Amino acid sequence: MTPERREPSAPALPPAPRATYRLQLQPEFPFEAAARAVPYLASLGVSHLHLSPVLEAVPGSPHGYDVVDHGRVREELGGEEGLRALSRTAREHGLGLVADIVPNHMAMSPRHNHALWEVLREGPKSPYARWFDIDWEAGDGQVLLPVLGAPVGEVLDQLRVDGDVLRYHDHAFPLREGTAELPLPELLDAQWYRPAWWRLARTELNYRRFFSISELIGVRVEDPEVFEATHAVILRLLREGVLDGLRIDHPDGLADPTGYLERLNEATGGRWTVVEKILAGQEQLPAAWPVAGTTGYDALRRVDGLFADPAGYRELLAEYRRYADPRPDRGGEWAATVRRAAYRVVTHELATETERLSRVARRLCEAAPDPALRDRAPWALRTALQELLVRMEVYRPYTPADAARVVTEEAAAEARLAFTVPEEGGAVGVVRDLVIGRSGDGPDGEELRTRFAQTSSALRAKSVEDTAFYRYVPLLSTNEVGGDPGRPAVSPEEFHAYCARVQRDWPLTGTVLSTHDTKRSADVRAALAVLTQCPERWADLLARVAGAGEDAPDGQLAWAAWQTVFGLGPADGERVSQALLKHVREAGLHTAWTEREPAYEEAVARFVAAGPCGAPGKRVAALREELAPHIRANVLGSALVHLTMPGVPDLYQGTEAEYLALVDPDNRRPAAFPPADADPDADAGSGAKEAVTRAALAVRARRPDAFGAAATYEALPAEGPAAAHCAAFARSGAVVTAVTRLSLRLAEAGGWRETRLALPPGRWSDVLAPGREFTGQVAVADLFARLPVALLERVERPATGT
Fold it and tell me: What is the domain class of 535-626 according to CATH?
């Protein structure tokens, strides 16, 4: 009898993570340091380590997103052998590895980036030329390199030829063959690149970059050969079991995110992958994307919002407007602030990207067979593009059909109002038709739609995250990546609806509270959220500290500075000063990164030292101490919700204990293990955040089916006079999470009183206070007798009382 022929089965995929732990690798914290932390991290209860980028980066880089070589694991971290050793150690302790990868860009550092070096040496005929998104025609056959400290004529004597290399201070560039002996001016003209004054990047740059960062050049991973070359090492490490899953950095910058993710999913065999996609408002992740979900900023917004009081926020906003006196379009109104910031960015920081779009639109109109597209002035097409871009309320469209939904008729109607002559406003309709694919066939049409989407994502990020968030500051905790400062509060009903949708559609998505990119850590934001429950006390505090010490250079900065030290608590004044200096430069109202005003910045430093970080800051510290129980309720509540809601929670390094950090680089300092504030032996009754974290992760490990793809989510509404202050849910009938929200308002209203929570059928053990058990209708006051949070696990043995 002939045996039945069987096809070889594909190797089983490693299981999706249960919980990940983000490590920020850098020369001061290499693979060896991560390996030493493994026993501690395994004891914490996570299933995977989440590594920041591991491929070769610019020497000394503290983050690794400036990749220079996709073919090597970073030597400063320990090289590939160091990574493999970390993987072996992790597996010995039951942990897997997830790696962060950067498909969108590389470092614009020719002396470290071999592929770029070859392009600059050989020009568009280089085999590496297809790697980079360069518009050779716009640069008259040269790549603009904005590296000179002044116009070239003023620094000519600082440029020198060294063999076949052109040097300028620390910069080195290859010389085109046969040009080394030319006189310097002729030599510069003969190269495939043009060293230029750095200020020309704003308007003359002819390569795609990351946002407005000229030091990062866009990579064309839509090209199959480029994809293979830039992903070969990562794919090999996945196949060989060194890595288990991936985090994808900034997919919105790619020409075709959907196509890229489909190719990546096929190449990885369907490994667990999450994407750093910022979802605006009620925007949904594209259903066609073959990923587990996002990195979790959408979850962050909902968790934070659950602990914000909408009525108190409105009072706080009114106090902010009285105190800071911002103009409506410069920090007084959220929507107007975003719009003004977008205009600034699209006409300044992204002027070169807008100009490139305009050139493509002109070509399309001039060559169009439809006469209706012709006779459009270049300025009108540029204006139409700008007006539509600033009205984008999501980061970008992905298909022409998607573009028709997000580049709306309403936006077009508003855009036409920018034209004083109505007939010239017709350019808006022409551009909209090109963007949504109603006209403009062929390569130019495809290029315009692609570039519009890429420019839109950069504009949204720069105008909202990096500008408006620093101008509109009534409550700093809401100014977070993916956040909505115009509507910071989320009701329990909204939160439950979001969780139910995540469990149904993206059950293995990532969730986060703190990351390397958050502007304030979760614990800082949790403290700030308490201010929505006592806006009058905050206003009274500011009235008492006003005029104490150095006068503030402006009201908005003062308001933000006082909130910063309230959220952070006692800290080194230098940390606060550096964060606030970054704050005012990003805001761009009185100083900026590229147009600095030394007198203003010096005034900021004096004010911060004498006020928030001086003697008056003690009053802020006193108020923080008075509100400590309510800050604690927010910290523990947000941590427990994050660890038990649908999705795969990602813990940022150190956040299992109290973690108080500001914007990068403050939040990217090398980690210590165990964290300084961690206490592995802490009793849950002490309220230690680490104890709550360990308990929740242990439950996830014991009850994996209660939290996985097949799990269920059930909202548990409380009943009684304080029902709105209890947020509770059940996971698969096996685990119950209950947290206190708006605890200060609760105390002022008389406490829990007769409020009760109906538990699902069965007996329930209090994981955070062993020995306590509950069943049926529970008095919420009893449930929260020891802590402002409760984590219950279903048991079968008889209850012993409450």
Answer: mainly alpha
